[in-house]
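R.M. (postdoc): so does anyone remember the format we settled on? I'll just put the structure tokens first.
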């Protein structure tokens, strides 16, 4: 529509009145240039716009997709580790409960009243007096040797053992 209005303006003859009257009115026509006088203008062509926005949107979508995928993987890891923690907490709670039960049983088994009842059942009687017994060193050594392995010479006396100890200490540079 704008082109049609412009064409009408070009073809329309304009008239102006100068001075004093209609007799002097002269018609004005738009002057056109000759074809030879026109200098050739370079041909301009419309270049299609680059799809920069489409590339930016695609890159942004790829980044958002990657972030969402990473967030989903992170949430999965958190959930898996939370399940592990819950299982371990449950195991710890169960172990504490078992420990408390065992402590109660131990306290009941070690209670003096229960021990005296069990002693009476076995035919024991309470002691009327206490007496400390002094043991000879040879007896203690014989008892200790009896608990040693079979390859040990049981005929060796305490004096021989002390002599062996003194020899080892002398070799090591110390005094017995």
């Amino acid at each position: 529509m704008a082109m049609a209005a412009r064409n009408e303006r070009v073809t329309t003859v304009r008239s102006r009145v100068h001075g004093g009257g209609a007799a002097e009115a002269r018609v004005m026509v738009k002057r056109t240039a000759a074809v030879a006088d026109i200098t050739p203008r370079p041909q301009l062509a419309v270049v299609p716009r680059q799809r920069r926005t489409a590339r930016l949107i695609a890159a942004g979508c790829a980044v958002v997709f990657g972030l969402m995928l990473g967030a989903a993987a992170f949430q999965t890891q958190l959930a898996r580790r939370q399940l592990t923690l819950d299982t371990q907490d449950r195991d710890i709670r169960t172990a504490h409960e078992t420990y408390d039960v065992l402590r109660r049983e131990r306290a009941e088994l070690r209670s003096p009243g229960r021990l005296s009842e069990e002693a009476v059942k076995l035919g024991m009687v309470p002691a009327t007096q206490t007496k400390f017994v002094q043991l000879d060193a040879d007896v203690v050594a014989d008892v200790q040797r009896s608990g040693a392995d079979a390859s040990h010479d049981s005929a060796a006396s305490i004096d021989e053992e002390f002599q062996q100890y003194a020899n080892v200490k002398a070799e090591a540079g110390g005094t017995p």
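R.M.: ...and that's the designed sequence above, right after the tokens. Also worth knowing: The chain has a mean pLDDT of 79. The chain is about 60% helix and 5% strand.
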